[in-house]
Amino acid sequence: MLLQEQRELVVEYGKKLVTTGLTDGTFGNLSVFDRESGLMAISPSGMDYFATTPEDVVVADLEGRVVEGTRKPSSELDLHRLFYQRRQDVNGVVHTHSTFATVLSCLRWSIEPVHYLVAYAGRRVPCIPYYPFGSLELAEAAWEGMKEAYNACLLGNHGLLAVGGSLSFAFDAAQQLEFLAKVYYYTRQAGGGVNLTPEELEAVLGKFQSYRQA
Ligand SMILES: [Zn+2]
Q: Could you tell me if 178 and 22 are in contact, meaning their C-beta atoms sit under 8 angstroms apart?
């Protein structure tokens, strides 16, 4: 079986999506990229995370063709594939419909740097317009909204996308950015927060760089 180790990671982190409250039911999806073979292991479409086994995880190439697996890959395959294709530093992608990130995406609010954890995404968390789920337009718009500058964005009227050098980083980002979305929502409800200054933000980003490499 191809990408055994990566398939196991997809199963493990899929369950974590549910146990940490980042997703309900079968929503959301995640993948790991193996740069050596040029193949990705991605969660199957519409399957319960606790019923998913490594055999159910689908292996696909960067053109989106299924290389191994009997299940249908996640409908957001393009959303994952584009980042692996265009960014050398991305080897893990997580997409969730976590509550506060989704609320902000429906309000079309980008998250401003009111809390230092914004560094998981970059200098802010941009929100892109709405595009139908599973479409190449959505994947291209997410790419346009993030490119090399961001590790996450809010997908308008939909949810959150987070990428990272590993699945574990992308997962941590999704989790911390859900907390940030909640903080940002309440901060704005209370009349608006105080943004970090550009200097304060740069200092955090510098610290994050070394923390991520550690
Ligand atoms: Zn979705």
A: yes
